Amino acid sequence: MALALLFVLMFLGFGLQKVGNELDADTKERTRQRVEMLQERMTPFLLEIEKRDQEHPRHSSIQAVLLSVLLRWQFWFCIGILVLFFWYLWRVLKSIQEPDSSSDEESSSSDSSSSDDDNQGRALPNPNDANDLADYVAQRIYWPLPNPTIIRHQALEVVEGLLNIYGSIFQKTFFPELQSAIGVGSAFEGWSPHEENVVYCLLIPMTAPRGHSFHMELGNEGDLLARNSSVRVELECTCGMKQASEDMLCFFHHSEEELEKQEPSLLDTLCTSSYLDAEKTAKWFQNFVKSAWVLLPQSQVYNVKVLPSTRSCKFRTTSATKRNITIEIIFGVQQGNSDIFLSSQRTEAILTPSTTWPQSCAVAEMKFIQHITIEAWFHSLHLKCMQIFARMLVGTSISTYFIKTAIMHLLTAIPLEMWHRDDFLLRLDDIVRYLQCCLEEKRLNHFFFGNEMMPNVIVLPPAFQFSGPVNLFEYLEEDTYAYARMLEELQELRYRLTRLMIYGQ
Q1: pTM across the whole model
Q2: CA-CA-CA-CA torsion sign (266, 271, 275, 277)
Q3: How far apart are CA 273 and CA 356, in angstroms?
Q4: What angle do CA 398, 369, 315 make, to 5 degrees?
Q5: How far apart are alpha carbons 270 and 283 in whole angstroms?
Q6: Which of 124, 275, 283, 299 sees the fewest Cβ atoms within 10 Å?
Q7: Which residues pair with 445 in a beta bridge?
């Protein structure tokens, strides 16, 4: 405190000396007398302050230190830096909140022209720098989330639990023997669009029960896709079979009266005119799910509701938190030891006979996607491309299977090292150009017929390996309306892709 008062007096004395040359003699004399009077009055106070400082040296030292700190310019410089930092942090937080409010305003507006003007006003990326453009798109574009592994695992657990119960209940009956479920479709391949209504599809292979055999009839000759296939069921003699139990009667060598004592044959339950009926099979398994659900551990957590379906078993599980998992079970009969099945899956036809089991490549497609994902785990851009195109095809007549087929062809033609995030724009453009060329030529070859680039992990029947290419666009030769419509929708797809890359929506 003494140093502070001394500093004030020195400042006053300096100020007086500075202006003293401009004053007259009387003023100088009065000022000198006033200064002497002030010095006489301040002397007792200064003595008292020095005495107090001697009694409390700690407080005086702290005050001296504080005064020295306050007089240093470094202290005020640090204070200024802190003020600037908090101001900049406030500006950043404010800028983060502004897009949310602006998006709400745009969604509430009904004028589409105003939103187009806003999009034109946005800053566009530099097209001359491909790397910057790829980074810009990667940050701005909506990347659908990959399929949640936890939910996929839960769906598999539910179905496997049902299969375990099925094996214990129908072990001594003549219903089909069910094998382990195989996850198929976009949800298990990893490219399902990020939507709430995701369906986890599983194919359950079926084999003939004891005393029965399955015989495939692949439809019309020359129909390599075998859309009109069927499964014929025949009875077999079990008299000499070691695996036949003692309480099983042979359907050939026992009378009808004796056979009435055992379970009915598959021909009497799930068949129509000696052919396996897909609708009867689906209805039978739906009833089984309703009755067997209470035996599952998941029944303590989830409620189940069987959904309407004619050729599959579709049900939804709901937890206490209202989280839904939709599972669809389709049934299939394996074609030899290959990855091709005759399945109960619905075809594109309006009316599909109940005894029709169309040929399905769903398992082979899943194995191919998994193979590519494993081989190019670091360059897994193909899944992102499938997700994006699946979202853009909503509302069009272009099937996602066409896009999927085009991408599978490009995966065998373009090295996997070039399916990297940096190549995102190029691969999207390749897919659209490839589909454009196929549409102009009205030819898109099926991926699994006569394809010499097929990986060895895919097991195909001989008819697939040695056949010629099968054109998926063959119907466009006669349906000119569908061809013109698909051309227009492809142009719309290109526009959506451009909008997605530039504006991220």
Answers
A1: 0.69
A2: negative
A3: 12
A4: 70
A5: 10
A6: 124
A7: 471
